[in-house]
Design goal:
Layout (H helix, E strand, L loop, with lengths): L8 H4 L11 H11 L1 H15 L3 H7 L1 H8 L13 H28 L1 H20 L4 H29 L5 H5 L1 H20 L6 H7 L2 H12 L5 H6 L3 H12 L5 H15 L4 H4 L6 H17 L2 H6 L1 H7 L4 H29 L1 H26 L8 H19 L2 H12 L2 H33 L2 H20 L12 H5 L5 H4 L10
Helix pairs in contact: 2-8, 2-10, 3-8, 3-10, 4-5, 6-7, 6-8, 6-24, 7-8, 7-11, 7-12, 8-24, 10-11, 10-20, 17-23, 17-24, 17-25, 19-20, 20-21, 20-22, 21-22, 21-25, 23-24
Length: 509
C-alpha cells in the first residue's frame, strides 16, 4: 500500500504476506473519497455548455453573441474566438495549479482527508459566486475559488484511493476518481440541456448546482477515515493500525503495517520532498509520473473536446439544443470507457490500454480532420450525414480516451511515487495537469480559428509521440505493490542506468 524507494530486502519478503478482504467500510471510504472527481467533472461538463448559451453570452460577452448570429459573414471556426471568454474557463485551472502546492503541505501534514474537506469548501464558495455573478470580475473570482477546490481535490483524492486499495485491485479502485469525473461531466451535460430552455437565468442554475457535489463531498468527508499511510506519517501508530485492520477486514496486517512504518521512517528523513524529487533514484517518477503523463493527458485534445463540445458542435452547424444533446452523447461514451477500464485494467495492464487506445484516438482525430478539410469552413451548415459521422467519430475518440489516458493519467502517477515524495509528487502531477489544461483551454478556440481542421491533425501527431513515450519508458505496474515499484526501474532497459547510480543521502535533501 505504501512504500519507499530505498526499501531493503526485508520489504521484498513481506508483500506476499499481505491479507485483505473487501468490507463495507472499505467500499464506503473509496466511494466517498472518489466523489472529489465529480467536482472536476461537473465543471468540465458545465463550462462549455454555459459558454454556448445565448443568455449567458448576452449578459457577459455580447460581442461573441453578435458574432455567433452572423453565421455567413466569417469562417465558422472563429465564431467563439474570444480570449476573455476562454479566460472564464481557464482561470479555474490556473488557480488550481497554484493551489496544489498549498494542498501538498496540507496533505502531508494534516492528511488526505483534510485536503478533501478544504477542496469541497472552496468549490462550494466558487459555485455560489458564479451563480450570483453580475459582472465578469465576479465570474472570474468564482472560478478562482472553484480552481482552488479542484487543486486540493485532485491532489488528495488519487492518493487517498491508491493508499486505501490493496495492490491487486488498486487500478480499479483508483479509477473510481475517473468514473466520478466522467459521471460529473455527463450529469452536467444533461443539466445544461435542460437549463438551456430556461430563460434568462438557466445558466445560473447550471453553475449554481455545482454546490451539490461540493456539499455531498464535504459531508461525506466528515465521516471519512484517514489513510493508514498518512496516520503513520503523522506518528499516530495506534490509530493507523486500527484503521488498517478495519479497511482490510482482518487483524493479520503485521506485514503491511511493518512496511508502512519502514516507509514512514524513510519519509521522515526527507526534509525537502520537492528537492528529493530531483534525485537520480526518483528520476523515472519525475519524468514519467510528474511531468510526462499529466502533460500528455491534456495534449490528447480530449478535455478541449469535452469542455468545448457544445461550442464545437454549434460551430459544426448543430443548433444550440442539438449541440448540448450531442455533447451529452460524448459524455455517455466517457462513462462507458471508464467502466471498461475499471473492469479490465488490472487484468490486461496499463501499457496495453495506453497503446491500443492511442492507435484508435489517432485514427479518430485524422478522420475528423480530413472530414472537416473536405466539408466545412465556408459558413455553410454540414450535411446531416456528415454531422452524424462526426458525432460518432468524436464519441469513439472519447471512448478510447475514457479507458486509457483519462483514468490512467491519474492512476499511474499515484502508484509510482515512494511515500517520502508522494504528496510532493502528486502536487507536481496536478500542477502540470492543470497548467496544460489551462493552456489548452486558453488556446484551443484561437487554434480552431487559425489552424481550422489542422488542430485535429496536431493532436493526432502529439498522440503518436506520447504513445512512443509509453512504449519505450513505462514498465507495467499492474498488481505490483507500491513498495516494490522501485524494482521496476532497477530492471528496466533504460531506467536501470540512471537509478542504479548513487545519490546523496536522503536526509540531505
Amino acid at each position: 500500500m505504501a512504500g519507499g524507494f530505498g526499501g531493503g530486502p526485508s520489504n521484498l519478503k513481506r508483500a506476499h504476506l499481505y491479507e485483505y478482504r473487501i468490507t463495507g467500510y472499505f467500499i464506503f471510504s473509496c466511494i466517498v473519497g472518489a466523489l472529489g472527481g465529480s467536482l472536476f467533472g461537473y465543471d468540465l461538463g458545465v463550462s462549455g455548455g454555459v459558454t454556448s448559451m445565448d443568455d449567458f453570452l448576452k449578459d457577459f460577452f455580447p460581442d461573441v453573441y453578435r458574432r455567433k448570429q452572423q453565421h455567413l459573414h466569417e469562417t465558422d471556426y472563429c465564431k467563439y474566438d474570444n480570449q476573455v471568454l476562454t479566460l472564464f474557463t481557464s482561470s479555474l485551472y490556473f488557480a488550481g495549479l497554484v493551489s496544489t502546492f498549498g494542498a501538498s503541505h496540507v496533505t502531508r501534514r494534516w492528511g488526505r482527508r483534510g485536503s478533501i474537506l478544504v477542496g469541497a469548501s472552496s468549490f462550494f464558495i466558487g459555485a455560489v459566486l458564479n451563480a450570483a455573478a453580475v459582472n465578469i470580475a465576479m465570474l472570474i473570482i468564482g472560478r478562482i475559488f472553484l480552481g482552488i477546490g479542484i487543486g486540493f481535490g485532485n491532489q488528495a483524492v488519487p492518493l487517498y484511493l491508491s493508499e486505501m486499495a490493496p495492490a491487486k485491485i488498486r487500478g480499479a479502485v483508483n479509477q473510481l476518481f475517473q468514473l466520478t469525473t466522467c459521471l460529473g461531466i455527463l450529469i452536467a451535460n444533461f443539466i445544461n440541456y435542460g437549463t438551456d430552455k430556461i430563460h434568462p437565468w438557466g445558466w445560473r442554475l447550471s453553475l449554481g448546482l455545482a454546490t451539490v457535489p461540493a456539499t455531498v463531498m464535504f459531508v461525506g468527508g466528515l465521516f471519512l477515515p484517514e489513510t493508514p499511510n498518512s496516520l503513520v506519517e503523522q506518528g499516530k501508530l495506534d490509530e493507523a493500525r486500527r484503521i488498517l485492520e478495519k479497511v482490510r477486514g482482518t487483524s493479520k496486517v503485521e506485514a503491511e503495517f511493518a512496511d508502512l512504518i519502514d516507509a514512514s521512517n524513510e519519509a521522515r528523513a526527507v526534509k525537502n520532498p520537492f528537492r528529493n524529487l530531483l534525485l537520480r533514484r526518483n528520476r523515472p517518477q519525475l519524468i514519467i509520473g510528474a511531468l510526462g503523463i499529466p502533460a500528455f493527458q491534456q495534449l490528447t485534445g480530449n478535455n478541449s473536446i469535452l469542455f468545448y463540445a457544445p461550442v464545437i458542435f454549434q460551430s459544426l452547424g448543430f443548433g444550440s439544443g442539438a449541440s448540448l444533446y450531442s455533447s451529452s452523447i460524448s459524455g455517455i461514451a466517457l462513462v462507458i470507457g471508464a467502466l471498461i477500464s475499471m473492469a479490465l485494467v488490472d487484468k490486461f495492464g496499463r501499457r496495453a490500454f495506453f497503446l491500443e487506445a492511442g492507435c484508435e484516438m489517432i485514427f479518430c482525430l485524422v478522420a475528423v480532420g480530413v472530414t472537416l478539410a473536405l466539408k466545412f469552413g465556408q459558413g455553410e451548415e454540414l450535411p446531416k450525414g456528415t454531422s452524424i459521422f462526426l458525432v460518432i467519430v468524436i464519441c469513439l475518440f472519447v471512448l478510447a480516451y475514457g479507458r486509457s489516458w483519462g483514468p490512467l493519467g491519474w492512476l499511474v502517477p499515484s502508484e509510482i511515487f515512494p511515500l517520502e515524495t508522494r504528496s510532493a509528487g502528486q502536487s507536481v502531477v496536478v500542477c502540470v495537469n492543470l497548467f496544460f489544461t489551462a493552456l489548452i483551454a486558453q488556446c484551443f478556440l484561437a487554434s480552431l480559428c487559425h489552424l481550422r481542421y489542422g488542430v485535429f491533425f496536431l493532436f493526432a501527431g502529439l498522440i503518436v509521440i506520447m504513445s512512443c513515450f509509453i512504449f519505450f519508458l513505462l514498465p507495467e505496474t499492474k498488481q505490483v505493490p507500491i513498495e516494490e515499484v522501485y524494482l521496476l526501474w532497477q530492471n528496466h532497459w533504460f531506467w536501470k542506468n540512471i537509478v542504479g547510480e548513487k545519490d546523496e543521502p536522503q536526509g540531505s535533501a
